[in-house]
Write a structure and sequence with these properties.
Blueprint (H helix, E strand, L loop, with lengths): L5 E6 L4 H17 L8 H13 L7 H29 L1 H18 L5 H5 L1 H17 L11 H28 L4 E6 H7 L2
Antiparallel strand pairs: 1-2
């Protein structure tokens, strides 16, 4: 006589392959109908993908949310310092010198906090997403836009807000599958690949 054993599995009420287009359809208006405040959704979706790459669990916030600002901050300092040097040595040389200082700081700083070292994907995404937002000019004209340092700082803030929104989208994408726990026999779970 054998005793049947059970294990708990998570079952989605709405499959993920349907939840993803539902999510995209829900947030798409934020990129189309807010005039100059349109969301750069590509920033959010890159971090949304990062949410899944780091495990697709709510506790990814412990890595993603504190790591993104370090990357954005180092990107802001790089461009701001390069801009400051550009008056005396030209923009290219200013950015090259500034690059060696702040990209070195970005990488060296990974050892300062465990979240940054384990969340290095988010650190580098924060850095590169800031550069993309800044160089594509996907920020709303808000404040003294003739001041280059305002534009750099505002691009950093705008990038970080949408990157954090991307983490929320990852969490929300799983939430709208309406998952629940179900007990199934171990034999059945092995047959279905659960």
């Amino acid at each position: 006589m054998s005793v049947e054993s059970y294990q708990e599995v998570t079952v989605e009420r709405i499959p993920l392959h349907w939840a993803v287009p539902i999510l995209v359809s829900l947030v798409l208006p934020l990129s189309l109908y807010l005039s100059e405040f349109n969301f750069p959704l590509w920033v959010a979706f890159i971090v949304w993908a990062e949410y899944f790459a780091l495990g697709g669990k709510p506790d990814t916030w412990k890595l993603i949310l504190p790591s993104l600002p370090w990357g954005v901050f180092c990107g802001v300092l790089w461009i701001a310092f390069g801009t400051a040097l550009s008056g005396s040595i030209g923009l290219l040389w200013g950015l090259i010198i500034s690059c060696f200082i702040f990209v070195t700081l970005l990488v060296y700083g990974l050892r300062w906090f465990e979240a940054w070292s384990h969340g290095s994907l988010a650190v580098f995404n924060g850095f590169t997403l800031f550069l993309a937002v800044y160089f594509t000019g996907t920020i709303p004209a808000f404040g003294p836009m003739e001041n280059p340092y305002w534009v750099i700082g505002w691009a950093g803030v705008w990038c970080l807000l949408h990157a954090w929104f991307g983490w929320f989208l990852g969490w929300f994408n799983i939430a709208i599958t309406f998952p629940y726990k179900k007990k199934v026999s171990v034999e059945k779970a092995q047959q279905t690949g659960s």
